[in-house]
Amino acid sequence: MSFIDIHGLKKSFGPVTVVHDFHLAVERGEFVSFLGPSGCGKTTILRMIAGFETATAGSIAIDGKQVAHLPPAKRDVGMVFQAYALFPNMTVAQNIAFGLRVAKKSAAEIRTRVGEMLDLIKLPQLGDRYPYQLSGGQQQRVALARAIAVKPQVLLLDEPLSALDAKIRVSLREEIRALQKELGITTIFVTHDQEEALSMSDRIVVLNEGRAEQVGTPFEVYNFPRTRFVASFVGTLNLMTAVVVDATAGRLTLDGRDVATAKPIVGRRAGDEVTVALRPEAVNLGDGTAQSDTLPGIVEDVAFLGAVVRIRIRLDAQTITLDSFNQPSVALPKQGEAVKLSFAREDLLVLDGDA
Amino acid sequence: MKKSTFGPWLAMILGAAYFLIPLIGTLEFSMRMKRGVYSFEAYKVVLGDPRFQESFSYSVMLALVTIAIGVLLVVPTAYWVQLRLPKLRPVVEFVTLLPLVIPAIVIVFGYLRMYNSQSWLPLTDTRRGTDLLLAFGYVTLALPYMYRSVDTGLRAIDVRTLTEAAESLGAGWATILFRVIFPNIRSAILSGAFLTFAIVIGEFTFAALLDRPAFGPYLQLVGANRAYEPAALAIIAFVVTWACMGLIQVFGAARGTGSKS
Amino acid sequence: MSEPSTATVRHAGGSGLPWAWFGVAPFFLFAVLFLILPTAFLIVGAFQTADGQFTLQNLRDLTHPSIVAAYRISIEISAASAIGGAIIGALLAYAAVGGGLPGWIRPTLMTFSGVASNFAGVPLAFAFLATLGRTGLVTWALSTWFGFNLYATGFNLLSFLGLTLTYLYFQIPLMVLILTPALDGLKKEWREASQILGASTFQYWRWIGLPVLWPSLLGATLLLFANAFGAVATAYALTGSSLNIVTILLYAQIRGDVLHNQNLGYALALGMILITGVSNVAYIWLRGRAERWSR
Questions:
Q1: Does position B260 have pLDDT exceeding 60, yes or no?
Q2: Is A67 on the interface with C (CB under 8 A)?
Q3: Which pTM was predicted?
Q4: What burial letters (b/e) apply to B23-40, b meaning 16+ CB within 10 Å?
Q5: Nearest-by-CA chain B residue for A48
Q6: Residue A146 pLDDT greater than 90, yes or no
Q7: Cβ contacts (< 8 Å) between A51 and chain C: which residues?
Q8: Could you give the ipTM of this predicted complex?
Q9: Nearest alpha carbon to residue C11 among B175, B199, B128, C19
Q10: CA distance B241 to C84
Q11: How far is B261 from chain C (nearest CA, A)?
Q12: Chain B CB contacts of A52 below 8 Å
């Protein structure tokens, strides 16, 4: 049995259902991200796990114990909120000590534990500061320390990085992940930022309109998106319409040209229109290998993005965008120039859902 | 984990009872003038009293003068502080809050001492002079509310950009103030104005001690000598206060939709 | 902060700082003439004899038992109505903000508070006379329906209790108006964070809610105190001059020199300023202590 077991979870506010039949099993020590746009239900699920919202239906078990009807404090979870949830009238040390104080630990024990926590978040000097004297990144680290000081079984992070500057965000997400690995604490992380989810998680749950669209490792979700939504939400992607020629052999036509996928096309017949997806970084200029398909096209636009150059090429009715590394020694194609582009067969994905 | 709303409801109901019963009591009392039947006799008597009409219109006039002086004093000051002298803000705010610290009766006592017939500026010697002094007194009473309201209004708009835009188009300071700033904080000014009106219309201490025939002293006089009319007057005063606050709400709400332009 | 403003002054005024000060000159002139000088006049007068000599005798005379009693009753009524108004007002505001009541309650309460906090003075006295006076509606209803004679219990509207009850009519709404924004400032996350760390509702209020609200509560209470302390009209219209409170004593002194000493009147006014002044200084000091942790 898994450490956290969520079964058939549903949440309605009056006539509006914001979470539909949600299932998830989280292993002990795993770091799982809920990724999705705002309003997709990710925070609602997290708040149901925390106990701030009551589920309309379904069950939540932590370590084999049903928690759905327990108050937040009895669930043995810690939580970090979006921003500024530190108690403003308490110092950093008092904030971290809060849960221990409520649990009536001895003063000596509290002092030791707070010291450990301050070291852990690398702010050993700042115990006597008040939250308003800290930067946003420091505040969130203190919030993290406050949540884990009481040694909860599960750590819930509700977009803890979204109010911070871009640079702090990157460094803090690395720190959070390192800390999580060090402590081995089971963690659920809510975010709308795909980069955060991809870089931090063991597994990602991509949510849309209250449903889990796909659950998988970052590698799976990014490289093999199962639905159009997942494909478009995670990373940039070329989405095109193709017509199936031979489903078993994986052959299709794209703007009248023959292309193929590495795997058979399941559940489609010849003549069906399907959506195919192609990552910009999977497309190359020039002829490809034997396992690739090569298509001719006209350069429509060249955008210089620094390390990467993004080139848009018109095939016939559709366009394709490709990313290539910026190499000063290689000349870039010009607008209007006729070029060839190629991509490996395993990179061409046929998506589920209606085309 | 639904919280019980019993306590909040109980608080609201008790609160509502405390606030509504005196109003109902007053209304009931005001209609008891004719023995055995409810009537609006007391209102008829009050509204037909020439002294009511005189004192009420005197107070309305005074309120309008107070509002005019107050707006002309407060808006340019708040504007100027925000734009050019932000360092002065704490001082100006402190001064505007002084009327909450110094009781009105003390201020008017000071006026009587400072502007009496033997002083360097004998304002109380003439009726017009006393009226003016009374209006100035009311401006000080309204100062905390007027300044707050206008200052909040100014903070909500971008004073600096508006001013610089107007300057770049060749506008002089009077044009900027009256054609650009005033219209943009109109709802804030109106809120302050209605509040001022509500304060001035029934004010007693200043008017009584400066011995002017305002509505407040008239109310007191009627209260000391009549039985049912005071209740009718209290209801009328309540309606006037309610109207002022209602108008503030109306213009406050207009601010939200109007500022989108 | 100061640099951009200097720059603008030059660019607009052309000749540097002094011009900028002309913009606020009318305001300060007005404040000096109609707020500060009149008050200063009284303060100076409090230290003078009738022929202008310096003296402390006026202040000594403030200890006359009847004057001390007037101050005492004033302070008692102001404190009772301020503390009562603060507690009841805070509970009402909290019920409206965080009580889970229907959405229309809050705007209704706010509008009504706006009206009631301004419904003071003479009309308020009339309203309470018509309600709790000897022939008032509630007095009548109590005796007719419940056989309860309010006035037989020693209750008198023209007394400490009556005046306090009347003052509450504008004190409670004023508290509601001042405290509601402060209650809005209490973040939901604080409550949730404390909850998930195991704190009870009591512990939340004891350790987070009240300490955070404390400056606002304190400030509002002191404002309510000053508000009641300076009130004249309600008390005068309600009790005439039968209740010996300091504003009514001062009113009588201004009208007819009942103390037979103009300068003692000034001292009386000085005492009032001192009391409201001290309450404000206390507020600022306490707020400074309580607000170490904010901005």
A1: no
A2: no
A3: 0.81
A4: bebbbbbbbbbeeeeeee
A5: B1
A6: yes
A7: 196
A8: 0.88
A9: C19
A10: 24
A11: 26
A12: 1
